[in-house]
């Protein structure tokens, strides 16, 4: 193989690698844009069904002790938290006691 042929192949491989990386980036961005935005909503999770934070003495997901516990949260679609009605009131963007 000549140096010219090797250089051409190197350029072709580099161009293909760059094109693949760009395609992956664009595909990842499109996928992320299609996913609904989520927000933490306090006081809407059922006992043991929270996504995280459930007050003192708990570790994280699935550790809430009561339904609609004010200091535990669940992910909900962005913009729906404060309009989510529970037997204990509306969902909250901040913890409540």
Walk me through the structure.
The chain is an alpha+beta fold and 97 residues long. The chain has two domains: 1-35; 38-90, no CATH class. 33% of the residues lie in helices and 19% in strands. The chain is built from one helix and five strands. The protein has one helix at 3-34; strands at 38-42, 52-54, 72-77, 85-86, 89-90. The chain has a three-stranded antiparallel beta sheet with strand order 1-3-2, with no helix packed on it. A hairpin with a 2-residue loop joins strand 4 (85-86) and strand 5 (89-90). It is elongated and about 70 Å long.
Into which percentage range does the β-strand content fall? 15-25%
Q: What is the domain tally?
A: 2
Give the helix tally: 1
Largest sheet descriptor: 3 strands, antiparallel
The stretches of 5 or more residues where confidence is low (pLDDT under 50) are none
The largest beta-sheet arranges its strands as 1-3-2
Instruction: Please give the radius of gyration in angstroms.
Output: 24 Å
Question: How would you state the average pLDDT, rounded?
Answer: 79
Binned, the helix content reads 25-40%
How far apart are the first and last residues' alpha carbons, in Å?
75 Å
Structural class: alpha+beta
Q: Can you count the beta strands?
A: 5
The multimeric state of the shown protein is: single chain
Helix-strand topology string: HEEEEE
Shape: elongated
């Amino acid at each position: 193989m000549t140096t010219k042929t090797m250089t051409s192949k190197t350029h072709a491989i580099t161009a293909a690698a760059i094109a693949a990386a760009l395609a992956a980036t664009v595909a990842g961005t499109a996928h992320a844009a299609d996913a609904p935005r989520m927000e933490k909503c306090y006081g809407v999770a059922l006992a043991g069904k929270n996504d995280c934070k459930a007050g003192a003495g708990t570790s994280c997901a699935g550790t809430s002790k009561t339904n609609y516990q004010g200091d535990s949260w669940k992910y909900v679609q962005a913009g729906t938290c404060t309009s989510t009605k529970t037997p204990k009131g509306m969902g909250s963007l901040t913890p409540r006691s």
